[in-house]
Amino acid sequence: MKDTIVLYPAPGLSHLVSLVELGKLIIHHYSHRFSLTVLLSSGDSFKLPAVDSYIDHISQTDPSIVFHRLPALPNPETSPPTTTFQIIRRNNPNLLHTLQTISNTSSIAALVIDFFCNPAFPIAVDLNIPLYFYVPTGASAVSLFLYLPTIHNQSDKSLRELGNTNLDIPGLPPIRAAQMPEVLHDRNSEFYDELLDMSINFTKSKGIISNTFQALEPRAIEAVEQQTLAFFCIGPLVVEPRDQSTESDCLRWLDAQPSRSVVFLSFGTRGVFPAKQIAEIAEGLERSGQRFLWVVRSPPPVHDSGKRLSLSATDDFDLDAVMPEGFLDRTRDRGLVVKSWAPQVEVLSRKSVGGFVTHCGWNSILEAVCAGVSMLAWPLYAEQEVNKVFLVEEMKLAMPMEAAEDGIVVAAEVEKRVGALMDSDEGAEMRKRCSKMRVKALAAWAEEGSSKNAFINLAKSLERK
Asked: What is the distance between the terminal CA atoms of the chain, rounded to a whole angstrom?
């Protein structure tokens, strides 16, 4: 009888997709040895139409991957959970029951949890199930979290108070305290406590699995390997592009543009800008004279205009009302603006795309690396500021986009940086580095490649009882 590997993603489509890509690898290479079950915690983030559509697609294309939704949680007596950690913790009784049920018919070889599912750690310990953390970001983020207990013990100040103090995180270029993820800035917050506990549990687990590869982050990977029992770098895990040339207007438009002539702007499924920032981007693009494909999401309400992260932005909005008057008409011959979403992997693989303005989400970074496309780094939330530093200073695969003191990136900066990315000598050198890194990314999963060998070592670890 096959042993079962249980995957437990954090709520949210991007976390689910990344962990399922790992599941696909396991099934593709070791279906004779393991069966695979993906647990979905109860919570609104796993009840979205996009999630249902994705699960239906995977169930049809990879039917050996079994999805299991944990029972719905009763409504809390107080306010609803506001963080992923709270949702996962409240699901622990259901997780315990489900793992015990699976154990009645199959031996559980491992529980692989998204790092945001850290509250499930004691359940695996109680059941004596080997637990692995899956980190959908790179080794730099893992090293950052591993260093958090050191920061905590060295000072009783919050990171917010440390401001411009440089933090000497192993394997990373200098990071200012202010550039750390915002959720870590207050050491008295619940989120900080949860992440501190997660950082400690990293070193207690059977191993950490990361969506990165050796050639991309050699210093950070070495630093993590020195601090953990096992570190498996099995990236880049990127969703394979599908041929949508007959399905998407933006892909047909890209196919009609000259080679490496288009700059692509997209800021993830949760990144939003206030109307003022959208106007500055539009003016900068128009003044730059460059061809562009720009994915625009609906601005947040006026009272939330400072937010750059939205879980509820609508796809149904008036694009003409959001754009500056006349902008769409004036740039019609060299630009295309689309609402809310574009097939990013497919877009980046088009020959006409020569640059990518990105929010520095890790999935987007890997997609650009695999396509050999150079980047402009414009972080919005989470660990993206750290990713920007790494992209610009360590990897040298991106240029920085700099904001003014009020947080707005002005039109002149957009014009300057887009022009430099697409037309300058510096931009040309960066494109060469990106092309070389693309070759290394492909080589990571070739025979005897670093990620192929890491995955083989992971499989051996999973098979040990």
From this structure: 15
Angle at 298 between CA 294 and CA 303, to 5 degrees: 135
Strand order in the sheet with 34-40: 65-69, 34-40, 3-8, 108-114, 131-135, 207-210, 231-233
Q: How far apart are CA 268 and CA 260, in angstroms?
A: 22
Triad 433, 439, 443: Cα angle to 5°: 140
Q: Which residue has the tokens 């207990």?
A: 149
In which band, very low, low, confident or very high, does the pLDDT at 81 lie, cut at 50, 70 and 90?
very low
CA distance 105 to 83: 33
Adjacent-strand bridge partners of 335: 292
How many other C-beta atoms can be found within 10 angstroms of the C-beta atom of residue 153? Answer: 8
Which token pair is 232?
């498996």
What confidence score (pLDDT) does residue 80 get? 46
The Cα–Cα gap between 424 and 186 comes to 41
pTM over 0.90: yes
CA dist 182 and 127 (Å) reads: 34
Q: How far apart are CA 129 and CA 184, in angstroms?
A: 30
The structure tokens listed for 357 are: 């303005």
